[in-house]
Amino acid sequence: MHKRKVLKFSLLAGILCSSMTTLALADEASAAKVQKLIDAADAARKQAAEVGGEWRDTGKMIKKAKGLLEKGDFVAAAKLANKAAKQGHLGYEQAMSQKELKLPSYLHYE
């Protein structure tokens, strides 16, 4: 009877340890994926900035996403990084579409 309890306890402990290891590895994988999203968002922001199309809040979003990543909130960090990347792409597209914008003659900028 005692051997049976020890065997059950050992089996349960082994299952718990393996699941804890799996969770830790999943967190690391999630952190790596979110870091890639943040890097992609920063690259999109830089591309938009090169053509004068960086939007005001994009950099702030990336900074906040990095903070959320450090705190371990991977879902919120990923959402914010995706939003920042979209703003970077849209800022670039906007700047390129307005590159050769013809202003009306009554508007004079110097």
TrEMBL record:
Keywords: Signal
Protein name: SoxXA-binding protein
Stretch forming the signal peptide: 1-26
